[in-house]
TrEMBL record:
Protein name stated in the entry: Aminopeptidase
Gene Ontology BP annotations: peptide catabolic process; proteolysis
Catalytic activity: Release of an N-terminal amino acid, Xaa-|-Yaa- from a peptide, amide or arylamide. Xaa is preferably Ala, but may be most amino acids including Pro (slow action). When a terminal hydrophobic residue is followed by a prolyl residue, the two may be released as an intact Xaa-Pro dipeptide
Cofactor details (free text): Binds 1 zinc ion per subunit.
Organism: Aedes aegypti
Chief place of localization: membrane
Gene that encodes it: 5576800
Length: 955
């Protein structure tokens, strides 16, 4: 599943008659690894097969039962133990009306409407047999009914507006992680698999699609059609998907791929790229993994209302509508990259998560970490000109560093049971950290060995649940084949050191007067304690020097296993006392690097006065990000960092600028209230000005993808610090749009122009853009405008804008996922936005909790928002108000203890930073930046958080 800004099942055909499937060689379900408690099924029975039959009336807008559904599921199951009398399944928000239990001799044991109990807390449906069930096979038939939900979870309803302005309803699904039980009672756990047969009865004017090809679609009567699908292979319930709609589609029949969406999007040609990318990406994955995709077809569909960004249902991948849309004339270039990457992520799941599933949610990273890694590998192979693999550094690794630097961060392996706790696992640790740790293994073992290990893993564990030990065994086999590790190091210990510990290390590099380099590791924390925080990881290290400046090989020189090691020059790796050295080539290792002051000085000298491109551009990005964050946490003096990043006056590569964009955002936010803020803006302008003038404010036909992205960063910062050229041109462009009413801005510059123009816009201009957003039927355009509207610094306009997110009349046309975007667009936007959003949340928590949440990612909208706001609290007054609000939210049940703790740590770290470093940086600015010189102008000053948010939208 793709995490939303920030995030279903299948079947094999024996028969519908009820023949037990013991002859189908189904994989057995492993026993529990931990004592069964609470929310875990006893698993003394297992499913052999499901037949699911559902009837929906979603097509009939005149029916009072339009959003009801009826269901029948037949489960062939096996009793595994003696003395079993009850059969326990999962269910959620459905009403069971009849139960029939039959044994292998076709003797009916139960046939009534009362031989069951339900437990709403644990979501158990318990079938009560009249006597002890013997070990063997049984058939369980359940009839039930339910209602299509409105929260984007389970079997739910969505809608779109057709070309005539009519609302058209559809029925669709989102089952990960625990919502399959809403569509049919089942064994709703990731380690349990069975084939699934599916029949859908629906209106004649609609059609149905699911994971597998259609077996038959026949009229049932004058109004309804019955569509039956081929059976899936054995799979987890959460991967089942089906959609009943009147959507259109485009197909590549040769590659058996199709893309479905509402007819308007199809007619505009907005889905052509998604189809092309799907074909290229699956070919890239099959080539890289040397494993064939398992199902007979692979469809994609854009759903108007969708809580997660995308979902990897086997054979039918579902997406937020906006994700699939790319129009070469209307969409920014970054949207092409975003669409390709998300498709690669979900297609990566077809192997990691679908073909091989985690034994329990504890090992979610075996799904999401691999999908994150594959999104960069496969998308890059499909579209090499976009250089997508380079972006893993700033998008995944450096992003994970932020979340993983907190004291209360969780390890990759984390045991949970409740649906709420399971949902909370879909975080930066499961995605970005895990993907970065796997990328580290790829480079540390070598790509050839890593790929061989993955093939061993996928071949050995296909259609089975896996644990990290299974992955380690497969990688170890490949390592042994190629002798890719020292004899003292094994793969299991490596993986355990990264998966079982919270956090990550900083590698300290010290060189003494005898030219001996000492390496040591400690856990990196944003809030540094007086004593080093112990922790030992299996850390692969390598280095480049001014004498050996080849950054191409990322294989390790060796592994740091203990706390420290000493390195001396050798024939293979030599350096002098005056050479710069860079560790962690291309930042493929998941750790920060801190050097002694002399080494930082030599590196800075090379960047400023030597050939800065002699250091790999990914390592230049590493140096920027590491130095800014090492200074933030007290590991490094700020004067070293602020001096180093001044080399950016000659930087033209995107990834280093992206690293600066993320790190400088924090400094700008923290210094916005300083009396020396004008000096800071001048310092930033001096960094940006040369490249800003070189790249200009207009896109060029010869621009690469990276050039367009770099231009946006430069424009954002130039406008933020008050460049008259930037402010005048962007404001005039928006003014022309408002006066012209029909003209629009270059899509690659639209976000920054709208945001800057709205900063101090009057009510009429603000209302024009708000109305334009509401009228737009283009979900990508709506997303951009929602973010831009949050840029206003007018409290009254922001209050009015936030109030629209609570509208339930439909006048504003918000999708469920768009409401929370309105809120985040406001709170990321500096002091005015943060404080306005806090008051709004405090006053409207109950309504926000009800309207902002959605589906399997639901129930966490307020928690996610509070965590985001915590990063933007910058002073003691805000901190006190913020904590008081959070206490009220926790008391009302809108925050859990973990979310409260994280928010307190993040906001408290900011206040501590202000007390410790505010004066230090002010003094440095006074000593090193001359006042005056630059013409800043008096127009709006964009806040740094808006810069970062806008760049994220444009990416």
């Amino acid at each position: 599943m793709w995490k939303a800004a920030i995030l279903i099942l299948s079947v094999t055909s024996a028969v519908w008659s009820g023949v037990p499937l013991e002859r189908q060689n189904l994989p057995s379900t492993p026993r529990q690894e931990v004592p069964v408690s609470g929310y875990r099924l006893p698993n003394n029975t297992i499913p052999l097969r499901y037949n699911v039959e559902l009837t929906t009336h979603v097509h009939d807008h005149q029916s009072p039962n339009q959003f009801d559904f009826n269901g029948k599921v037949t489960i062939w199951l096996r009793v595994l133990e003696e003395n079993v009398q009850n059969i326990t399944l999962h269910y959620r928000q459905i009403t069971v009306t009849h139960v029939k239990l039959t044994d292998a001799t076709n003797t009916v044991l139960v046939n009534d409407d009362s031989s069951f109990t339900t437990d709403v807390t644990y979501e158990f449906l318990v079938i009560l047999a009249p006597s002890i069930l013997r070990i063997g096979d049984y058939s369980l038939e359940l009839e039930y009914h339910g209602e299509l939900r409105t929260d984007n979870g389970g079997f739910y309803r969505s809608s779109y507006t057709d070309a005539r302005g009519n609302t058209r309803w559809i029925a669709t699904t989102q089952f990960e992680s625990t919502d399959a039980r809403h569509a049919f009672p089942c064994y709703d756990e990731p380690g349990t698999r069975a084939p699934i047969g599916l029949k859908l009865t629906h209106g004649n004017a609609y059609h149905a699609i699911s994971n597998m090809p259609i077996k038959s679609s026949l009229p049932w009567n004058a109004t309804y059609t019955v569509t039956e699908f081929e059976d899936t292979l054995a799979m987890q319930t959460y991967l089942l998907a089906f959609v009943v709609s009147d959507f259109a589609f485009i197909s590549n029949t040769e590659n058996k791929q199709s893309v479905y969406a509402n007819p308007v999007s199809i007619s505009n040609g907005d889905l052509n790229f998604a189809l092309e990318a799907g074909v290229k990406v699956i070919n890239a994955l099959e080539d890289y993994l040397q494993v064939k995709y398992s199902f007979p077809k692979l469809d994609q569909i854009g759903i108007p209302d969708f809580a997660a960004g995308a979902m990897e249902n086997w054979g039918l991948v579902t997406y937020r509508e906006e994700v699939l849309i790319y129009n070469s004339t209307k969409s920014p270039m970054g949207q092409l990259k975003r669409t390709a990457s998300i498709i690669a992520h979900e297609y990566g799941h077809q192997f990691f998560g679908n073909l091989v599933s985690p034994k329990w949610w504890s090992y979610l990273w075996l799904n999401e970490g691999f999908a994150t890694l594959m999104q960069y590998i496969a998308a890059d192979k499909a579209y090499p000109d976009l250089r997508i693999q380079d972006m893993a550094t700033v998008e995944a690794l450096q992003n994970a560093f932020q979340s993983d630097a907190l004291e209360n961060t969780r390890p990759m392996n984390s045991y949970v049971e409740t649906p709420t706790a399971i949902s909370a696992l879909f975080d930066d640790i499961a995605y970005d950290k895990s993907g970065s740790v796997l990328r580290q293994l790829q480079h540390a073992f070598g790509d050839t060995v890593f790929r061989a290990g993955l093939k061993y893993y996928l071949d050995a564990m296909q259609f089975q649940p896996a644990t990290p030990a299974d992955l380690a065994a497969a990688l170890q086999r490949a390592v042994d084949d190629h002798q890719a590790l020292p004899s003292t190091v094994n793969v299991s210990d490596i993986i355990n050191s990264w998966a079982d510990q919270s956090g990550y290390p900083v590698l300290h590099v010290r060189r003494n007067t005898d030219n001996v380099i000492t390496l040591s590791q400690e856990r990196y924390l944003l809030k540094r304690s007086k004593d080093a925080v112990k922790g030992t990881w299996y850390l692969p290290y390598n280095m480049a020097t001014s004498q050996a400046s080849d950054f191409s090989s990322t294989l390790p020189h060796d592994w740091l296993i203990d706390q420290t090691v000493e390195l001396r020059p050798s024939a293979a790796l030599n350096w002098t006392i005056d050479d710069w050295v860079i560790f962690n080539k291309q930042q493929t290792g998941y750790y920060r690097v801190n050097y002694d002051d002399k080494l930082w000085e030599l590196i800075t000298h090379e960047l400023h006065h030597g050939n800065h491109s002699s250091i790999h551009h990914l390592n230049r990005a590493q140096l920027i990000d590491d130095s800014l964050n090492l200074a933030r946490s007290g590991h490094l003096k700020y004067d070293i960092t602020l001096k180093l990043i001044q080399y950016l006056t000659k930087e033209e590569e995107y990834v280093p600028w992206a690293s600066l964009n993320n790190g400088l955002a924090y400094l700008n936010r923290m210094l916005a209230g300083s009396s020396k803020y004008n000096l800071f803006k001048k310092y930033v302008w001096e960094l940006v000005e040369p490249s800003f003038h070189k790249f200009g404010l207009e896109n060029k036909p010869s621009d690469t993808h990276f050039a367009k992205l770099t231009r946006n960063i430069l424009i954002n910062w130039a406008c933020q610090v008050g460049s008259e050229d930037c402010l005048t041109q962007t404001n005039s462009q928006l003014a022309e749009v408002v006066s012209n009413k029909t003209k629009d801005i270059d899509p690659n510059l639209k976000g920054v122009v709208y945001c800057n123009g709205l900063r101090n816009a009057d009510r009429n201009t603000f209302q024009y853009v708000l109305d334009r957003m509401h009228r737009s039927q283009d979900p990508s355009d709506r997303m951009l405008l929602i973010s831009a509207l949050g840029c206003s610094e007018n409290t009254a306009l922001l209050e009015m804008y936030l109030a629209t997110s609570l509208d339930e009349t439909g006048d504003f046309g918000y999708r469920g996922q768009e409401r929370s975007r309105v809120f985040s667009a406001v709170y990321v936007n500096g002091r005015v936005g943060l404080e306005t959003a806090m008051k709004f949340l405090d006053a409207n928590a109950a309504t926000i909790d009800r309207l902002y949440n959605g589906g399997s990612f639901g129930g966490r909208a307020i928690g996610s928002a509070v965590t985001g706001m915590a990063r933007r609290v910058v002073n003691k007054e805000q901190y006190d108000d913020f904590l008081a609000m959070n206490t009220r939210l926790e008391s009302a049940g809108y925050l859990n203890a973990g979310e409260l703790s994280t928010a307190k740590e993040l906001s408290g770290e900011n206040v501590q930073w202000t007390n410790t470093y505010f004066n230090v940086i002010e003094s440095w600015l006074e000593a090193n930046v001359k006042s005056g010189a630059v013409r800043f102008g008096t127009a709006s000053m964009m806040t740094v958080t808006t810069v970062a948010a806008l760049v994220a939208v444009l990416l």
